[in-house]
Each structure stands twice: as C-alpha cells, then as structure tokens.
Automatic annotation (TrEMBL):
TM stretches of this protein: none
The EC number(s) this enzyme carries: 2.7.1.176
Recorded catalytic activity of this chain's protein: UDP-N-acetyl-alpha-D-glucosamine + ATP = UDP-N-acetyl-alpha-D-glucosamine 3'-phosphate + ADP + H(+)
Organism: Paenibacillus campinasensis
Pfam family of the protein (one): Zeta_toxin
PANTHER family, alphabetized: SLL8004 PROTEIN
SUPFAM superfamilies named among the record's database cross-references: P-loop containing nucleoside triphosphate hydrolases (SSF52540)
Protein name (database record): UDP-N-acetylglucosamine kinase
Length: 368
C-alpha cells in the first residue's frame, strides 16, 4: 500500500473516493434504486454487469454473462487502483463482492451499502417473471432461491465492512428498514413496519455490532501506533532544526564573550604592565574556546542546503500526516465510545427484561 493510500484511508469519509454497493437478490429492485440515487453523485463510475453483457449480445447468454462478469471485475480493480469513486450491483450471493469491499476499504475508500429485500423469495421470483414478460432477462428459479439464502447470509459481513449501510424493503414501495453508520444504528423502522427478512438480520445485530466494535477498537489501536511512530519520526527529522537553533544560541554566546573579552583588554601602558584582568581574561578565553568547539561540533551535524531543503519537505509532509492521523484517531475514538454505549444500553435493557420476567414468574409461583 502506498503512502497516498494510507492518507486516503484516514481522511474523513466524505473526502475519500467511495465504493457504493447496491445489493439484493434478483428482482428486488436494485437497478431502480441505482437510478433514483444516481443524482447524488452523477460523476461516479457505474459498473453494471447486465449493461456490459448487452455488448456481448452476439455470444450465447452464458458466455456473454461470463465475459461481462470478468470485465466488471476488471473495472472494479481499475477504479480501486486509480482511486475513482464507483458503484456496482450485486445479488451478494457470493463472496467476490465482499472481497472487493475489503480491498477498497484497505485502499482508502469509504463504503456505502444499499441493500434491497422483498418479503419472501416467491415475491422475488414473481418480480423476475414480470420483468421477463416485459422483455427483461430470465433468471432460473433455483438460482433465485439459492441466492435469496446466501445473500441474506452474507449481508451481516457486508454491513460490517461498510461505513454506511441502508436496508430497504421494496415489497410494495421502497421503505427504509434500518440505517447503520460504522456500527451505530442511526435509524430503525417501528416494529410494525419491519419485514421478516430485515427482522432476522437485525435479530443477529448484537453479534454484528460486537464485531464492528472490535474492528473499531483495532483501528483505534492502529491509529495510536501510527501516530506515535509519526511523532517519533518528526522528532528525528527536526533534529537538524534543533541543531540550527543551538548554533544560533552558541554564536550569540560567542559574540557576547568576544565583546566582553575586548572590553576587558588593557587600554593603556600601565594596564598592560599590571594586567589587572589577567585571571578574568583567561577564564573568558577558556570559555570562548569551549564555545568554539561546541560551534564546530554542531556545524558538522547540520546538513548542507540541498539536504536541508529535502528534510524540510519531509517535515511538512510528516506534520500533515500527523494532523490527519490525530483527526482520524479522535473520530475513531468517538465511534468506539458511541458503539460501546449502544452495546451497553442494549445489554442493560436485556438484563432488565430478564429480571422483570423472573420477578413476574416468581410472583406467579408465590400466588400459587
């Protein structure tokens, strides 16, 4: 990973290139959501394997799909390498997109996940059939059923990798089920409005959130270590500057000693014969010699002008990196605390609920 990738990785989320993932089993309505949200970032590179497949219409469908998939993977890798914001559509039925999300995250991208689900797998099958009737492409029913299961199984890991996650149900119209920001639930639909598939995902939220909390704590530790290393490096880089400051102080001291030495020199013939300041002059002379030795030693440690210019550039770069790391550490620490507080509050509610249930059970037993 290059230094530029490191810098991107620790910039505020809105200052980084982004990877936007539109996910959901076939027929969920990913493409429509992509069109609805595209205005937010019209310059983003849209990678759509279905659209790419149209350019291979001269090939049999299975070969066209394979070629389009391979080209989509190539485009994703290219966008990550070039630091370009992009979006992809996926059923999330396999691990490939999870690997791409992980690679993008390591390369300094912010990850946005929009997951669209329907109330049942049969509704997915019906939606695909309706699409085929209008001239759309066919997906075998067994593939839809398989992807419906694996897509929801992979969703928790996708939420863990994403910085922002939005879960939509599209059984009737697009209805947000939950919004997650780096482990914090920012919004959750009322219980009466949460569909079964979203309820199952959120039911396992305790494990997902705990894993995200661990990820944030690991990132916090990494940032602390990087910040410490960067500060040590800066201290070493600034050594010549400290030597230059020391040299200025020594030269000022030398000028003062020379002035005092000159002032104490005998002025007339009688002073020259008597030498009234001989002892003080000797002390000043010894001190001047000692200071001169320090000046010579310090000058030897100071690099030449060309090397010094390079060091100053490195100091500026390292100082900027320290500012970025410090800002990132503060933000990460805030997130660790926020997620930790949510976990603690949820655990407390569960404990209180168990205590109340136990008290009710005990009361019933006593009444008997």
């Amino acid at each position: 990973m290059t230094k530029e990738d490191n810098l991107k990785r620790y910039q505020p989320l809105d200052d980084r290139p982004s990877m936007t993932v539109y996910a959901g089993t076939n027929g969920a309505g990913k493409s429509e959501l992509t069109k609805i949200l595209k205005h937010r970032n019209p310059d983003i590179v849209v990678i759509d394997a279905d659209e790419i497949a149209k350019s291979y219409s001269h090939l049999p469908k299975n070969r066209a799909d394979f070629a389009a998939g391979r080209e989509a993977v190539k485009l994703v890798r290219q966008c990550i390498e070039e630091g370009k914001s992009f979006s992809i559509e996926t059923t999330l039925g396999g691990k490939n997109v999870l690997n791409q999300m992980q690679l993008a995250k390591k390369s300094g991208f912010s990850i946005n996940l929009y997951y669209v689900g329907l109330d049942s797998v049969d509704l997915h099958i019906d939606r695909v059939a309706q699409r085929v009737a209008k001239g759309g492409h066919h997906i075998p029913e067994e593939d839809i059923r398989r992807r419906y299961v694996t897509s929801l199984e992979n969703l928790p890991q996708a939420i863990r990798l994403a910085d922002r996650s939005f879960l939509f149900d599209n059984s009737n119209v697009y209805q947000i089920q939950a919004e997650v920001y780096r482990g914090q639930i920012r919004y959750q639909a009322p219980p009466s409005e949460i569909t079964s598939w979203a309820k199952n995902v959120l039911k396992d939220w305790h494990n997902i959130q705990s894993e995200i909390h661990k990820d944030l704590q690991a990132e916090q530790s990494t940032l602390r270590n990087l910040l410490g290393e960067a500060k040590r490096k800066l201290y070493e880089l600034e050594s010549p500057l400290r030597d230059m400051q020391q040299l200025e102080r020594l030269e000022a001291r030398q000028a003062d000693l020379n002035k005092r030495y000159d002032m104490m020199q005998p002025k007339g013939i009688f002073e020259k014969l008597r030498q009234p300041n001989r002892t003080d002059l000797q002390k000043l002379s010894d001190e001047r010699n000692a200071v001169q030795k320090q000046i010579d030693t310090t000058r030897q440690r100071i690099p030449g002008p060309k090397e010094m210019a390079g060091i100053r550039t490195m100091i500026t770069s390292t100082s900027s990196f320290i500012e970025i790391l410090d800002r990132a550490l503060k933000e990460c620490t805030k997130q660790v605390m926020a997620v930790g507080n949510q976990i603690s509050q949820r655990d407390l509610k569960q404990t209180m609920s168990r205590v109340q249930s136990h008290e009710i059970s005990s009361s019933i037993e006593m009444d008997r």
